[in-house]
Amino acid sequence: MKVKYKLPIGFKDYLVNDCFIKVDVENNIINTFLHHGFLRLDTPSIEYYNLFSDGVSKVSDDKLFKITDTDGNLLVLRPDMTTPISRIVSTKLDVKTHHKFCYLGNSFCLKAGSNLDREFTQAGVEVIGKSCAVADAEVIALAIESLRATGLKDFLIDIGQVNFFKGVLKELNLSEADTLELIDLIDRKDMLGVQVFVKANCLRKNVMDSILRLPMLFGGVEILDKALTFAHNDLSVNAINNLKEIYKYLKSFGLENYISFDLSLVNNYGYYSGVVYKGLTKYFGAPILSGGRYDELCLSFDKKIPATGFAIGISNLMSALKNEGNLPKIPCVDIAVGFCDGVASFAHEYINYLIGEGFVVDNSFCNTLEDLIEYKKQKKCDKCVFIKNSCKQNVGLPKFDAILFNGKYEEIKNCDDNMDKQNKNCLVNDKNINNESCVVNDKNINNESCVVNDKNVGDKNISNKNCLVNDKNINNKNNCACKDEGDAK
User: How confident is the prediction for the chain on average, in pLDDT?
Assistant: First the structure.
């Protein structure tokens, strides 16, 4: 297959249904943010490479999409949204007061791993300039409210504290390489790997016991008291007390059922400086949300500004909603409209009238009733209206499938149930319309005979295509179509 017919690995199209679901999920999240006083901002998809090349916000080179600018400078597609926001806060805003921002945008990762998106949409918030437990609790509460706003029901926010882990690591006096190796093992809860690491580094027994127990410190709030029994330094003790205070607020908010703890949770160890958390659900095998406190992020711009926030992965959340059976329902079209030749102007006015009344209306461009009924079936519309002629009076709202003729609705009964496989049959006012036979006003119209006003005119050799009913020509192939103002076709 030619390359132009394919997408690069890790990128995808969102077709109609998925696109509707994605936009609906995004809107529910953003509206939740806005109702909590967050202001939306956006940043360019492309930043200078230097923004992500060092400091707390450093991203590994093999994960960056790089572009050379016309002036020779190295650019990258942004790998996250938070670092560009820290750039804005540090260089363009007054930091004497705190700020509450939200965002929705795409980020990019060149080396995303197997079956992972290399372009991914994130919705998130940042609280800049506040460093206190109640601010962290409020942001976690907003994360819960945002997930609930999308319809997700069964999930937990798993909370940890990187300073607890940092306190334990300080007692080990490990090299940077060994520290990163141990962090990775604990983050993956690789107990065998941790045991091998501990023995290989000949750690003291009390330290060894703490390290081996660390991956098992997860569960309810009772885990926090258990962790204090082997927190042998002030940094670790203060971290546990910080979690207790955050939990106190969350419990007072009535959100304790959404909370669990995992003291081996480190997220991005060098990035975060306090509480960290992930949104987990049994309906998806990876986090759908991640966040925490990162008070040192703005140090890249020589400013010390506390910050906390989270990001929701939209694609992961959509998968979780699908698996839980709570995807938003895609609304069908309320009314499909068709019309005869020469009635387009009135049809346009009529469609706008229905839209103004709150209906979703689809101009089908069908100029026969038969085509409109087939269109309605294919598009799964709720109702259909076929306009035969224009009129000046207010026609009101349709309550059923109908033909609009001289300003009045004539009901098309059972137009779905009574259509055969060739879509040839339909009832109008309890009368059958068929390409080969039709009953109009209780009279039978067929290929060779017709009864009009209780008089048999079959002996007058009415052809397969022509029959006069009340001075109007009914064509067997277009027996509900006309030119305008009731003119016969």
Answer: 84
Judge whether residue 419 has pLDDT over 50: no
Which class for 338: exposed (0-12), middle (13-18), buried (19 or more C-beta within 10 A)? buried
Predicted confidence at residue 188, as pLDDT, reads 77
Measured between alpha carbons, how far is 113 from 221 in angstroms, rounded to an integer? 34
| Residue 307, H or E segment | strand 307-313
Q: Is the pLDDT of residue 451 over 90?
A: no
Residue 117 token pair = 């998106």
Q: What is the mean pLDDT of residues 105-127?
A: 89
Cα distance between the two ends of the chain: 51
pTM of the model: 0.80
**Greatest distance between any 2 Cα atoms in the chain:** 112
Side-chain half-sphere exposure of 253, counting CA atoms within 13 A: 21
Residue ranges with strand state E in 82-172? 99-108, 119-128, 156-161
Which residue matches tokens 């569960």? 219
| Position 310, amino acid | F
pLDDT at 104 over 70: yes
C-alpha 44/C-alpha 105 separation (Å) is: 10
C-alpha span between 217 and 18 (Å, rounded): 39
Q: Residues 266, 270, 276, CA angle at the centre, nearest 5°?
A: 35
